[in-house]
Design brief:
This protein has three helices and six strands, in the order ααββαββββ. It has helices at 15-30, 34-38, 57-70, and strands at 41-49, 52-55, 71-84, 87-98, 104-116, 119-126.
């Protein structure tokens, strides 16, 4: 993350507001609504996962569009949420179906995030890539 990026928000969201944001994101994925998925990202979002890093909404839109082209049937169970100021962590179980062959797969995912002005500025995922392997 660029050290000059403003991480700390002008306002801090409550635990309940963050919970609602995450439920909205879960619905957006379930509905396969790319615009709703993108709505919660800051313009300079930094996303890190075992598969690599993406910076900015254009890179995230491209990655999420490719993902939606490949997978469907999203179910996400939010198991834990911790929020402190402008940052937090969550655990959820992500389930999806690969369109090409109907393979259904699930992975437990832990995420550390930073919010800025109600948007996701940083999102780092920790999961076992083998759980998502073909």
């Amino acid at each position: 993350m660029n050290p000059e990026q403003k991480l700390h928000p002008d306002t801090v969201m409550t635990h309940e507001e963050v919970h609602r944001l995450l439920l909205r994101r879960i619905r957006a994925w379930r509905d396969e609504d790319i615009d709703a998925i993108m709505a919660d990202y800051a313009d300079d979002i930094v996303h890190v996962s075992p598969y690599g890093s993406r910076v900015g909404v254009a890179a995230m839109r491209a990655a999420n569009t490719r993902y939606l082209d490949e997978f469907t049937g999203f179910e996400v169970a939010l198991n834990r949420l911790v929020v402190e100021g402008d940052q937090g962590a969550l655990e959820w179980t992500w389930t999806e179906t690969r369109r090409a062959d109907g393979l259904r797969r699930s992975a437990d995912d832990a995420i550390v995030f930073v919010l800025r002005d109600g948007k996701i500025a940083y999102w780092r995922e920790y999961f076992d890539p083998a759980a998502r392997a073909p």
